[in-house]
Amino acid sequence: MPGLDDSKIIELFYARSEQAIVELSQKYGSVCSKIANNILNNKLDAEECVNDAYLGAWNTIPPQNPNPLLTYISRIVRNLSIKKYHSNTSVKRNSFYDVALDELESCIPSGKTIESELDAKELSRIIDDFLDTLDKENRVMFVRRYWYSDSISDIAEKFQISSNNVSVRLSRIREKLKKYLKKEGLKILQEEISLMRLVISVIGISKKLQIFKLGKRV
Predict the structure, then answer these.
(1) Closest CA to 154 of 15, 8, 30
(2) Please, are residues 105 and 196 in contact by the beta-carbon 8 Å criterion?
(3) How far apart are CA 197 and CA 150, in angstroms?
(4) Can you give the three-state secondary structure of 63-131, one letter per residue?
(5) C-alpha–C-alpha distance, residues 58 and 17, integer Å
(6) What does 12-49 look like in DSSP terms, one character per residue?
(7) pTM for this prediction
(8) Angle made by CA atoms 52, 209, 116, in degrees to the nearest 5
(9) CA 209, CA 30: separation in Å to the nearest integer?
(10) pLDDT (tens digit, 9 = 90+) per residue, 106-119?
(11) 210 Cβ partners below 8 Å, 6+ apart?
């Protein structure tokens, strides 16, 4: 992506120069807007979340010194957008985020009891391990769909394959995830917590995300 080097942008943040936000927006603004729009399907709400994310970066850098910067700002935008999504009780279920959530619904292991407390760190470990079972292209496809909420057509364009091919591959990955979660013994009450939503949130803190770059085909 064009723009000032990440380290130079960080230096501007540390110098408390407002130019830091200008440079951050110029370099990663389109990526941030896409993430927010995919989740919210509302331009004004998306713009609000992106602007709040810039403020969040300003308030946390320093002391934070994020590397890569793209992953850091993307996570802030995504978390704010999901929070906004849940606060909009009247929002219609028509965003790419909704569709991605629905796709993962079938991966939830059924069960009537919670055998153990499942915390975010443990689930993050499980997701990391699952991503390790996928080849690089399928890992990127999975994360772009279920973390960045990219549409099927966008993914197909990035990988230069048909939308049908993407749908089939994602279906196979979800089936593999379902079997993996069952193997890990994850049983949880759907009425108490949606594992699918927990999974899609924890993907955001998965260490494996550090290897993914938006806008770059691998």
Answers:
(1) 30
(2) yes
(3) 16
(4) CCCCCCHHHHHHHHHHHHHHHHHHHCCCCCCCCHHHHHHHHHHHHCCCCCCCCCCCCHHHHHHHHHHHH
(5) 10
(6) HHHTT-THHHHHHHHHHHHHHHHHHHHHH--HHHHHHH
(7) 0.60
(8) 95
(9) 19
(10) 555 444 333 334 45
(11) 68, 71
Q: Which two tokens stand for residue 46?
A: 């998306």
What whole-number distance in Å separates Cα of residue 13 and Cα of residue 8? 9
Token pair belonging to 33: 């807007």
Cβ(218)–Cβ(137) below 8 Å: yes
Tokens of 100: 């991605």
Cβ-contact 38, 149 below 8 angstroms:
yes
Provide mean pLDDT across the span 114-126: 56
Question: Which residue segments constitute the domains of the chain, with CATH numbers given?
Answer: 6-87 (1.10.1740.10), 96-211 (1.10.10.10)
**Which residue matches tokens 């501007």?**
12
d(CA 172, CA 204): 22
